[in-house]
């Protein structure tokens, strides 16, 4: 029951991002455990027949269209990690800038 509710919440989240497309199916594709903790990668299929990867750690974090370089779940996860690193770098630079101007 808990798993069904969780999948419905993820479907709702994905539909908000992908509107007007409707999510037809969502399935857990892979769980990756590393220094970042457990990351769940969900495969999503829409009524438009487009497919996506939904990356979830503590909450849904990122959505990647399943094609080209993101055809594999692992590649989408690596891109997600790269986004996190870039975000950390930007945050660090912003902190330095605030320190320098104060």
Characterization of the model:
- By secondary structure, this protein is α+β, with helices and mostly antiparallel strands.
- Helix content is 45%, strand content 33%.
- It has one domain (2-101).
- It has two helices and four strands; from the N terminus they run H-E-E-E-E-H.
- It has a four-stranded antiparallel beta sheet with strand order 1-2-3-4.
- The mean pLDDT is 88.
Secondary-structure element series: HEEEEH
How much helix, percentage-wise, in residues? 40-55%
Which spans have pLDDT < 50 for at least 5 consecutive residues? none
Strand content: 25-35%
Q: Count of DSSP E strands?
A: 4
How many structurally independent domains?
A: 1
Mean pLDDT: 88
Strand order of the largest sheet: 1-2-3-4
Q: Find the structural class using helix and strand composition.
A: alpha+beta
Radius of gyration: 16 Å
Largest sheet: 4 strands, antiparallel
End-to-end separation: 53 Å
Broad shape: elongated
Tally of DSSP helical segments: 2
**Oligomerization category of the chains in this entry:** single chain
SSE blueprint and pairings:
Layout: H1 2-18, E1 23-34, E2 37-46, E3 51-56, E4 60-65, H2 73-101
Antiparallel strand pairs: 1-2, 2-3, 3-4
């Amino acid at each position: 029951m808990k798993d069904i509710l969780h999948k419905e919440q993820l479907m709702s989240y994905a539909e908000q991002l992908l509107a007007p497309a409707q999510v037809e199916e969502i399935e857990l594709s892979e769980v990756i455990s590393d220094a970042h903790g457990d990351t769940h990668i969900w495969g999503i299929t829409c009524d438009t027949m487009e497919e996506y990867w939904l990356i979830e750690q503590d909450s849904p974090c990122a959505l990647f269209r399943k094609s080209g370089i993101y055809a594999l779940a692992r590649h989408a996860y690596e891109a997600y990690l790269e986004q996190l690193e870039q975000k950390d770098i930007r945050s660090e630079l912003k902190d330095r800038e605030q320190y320098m101007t104060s």
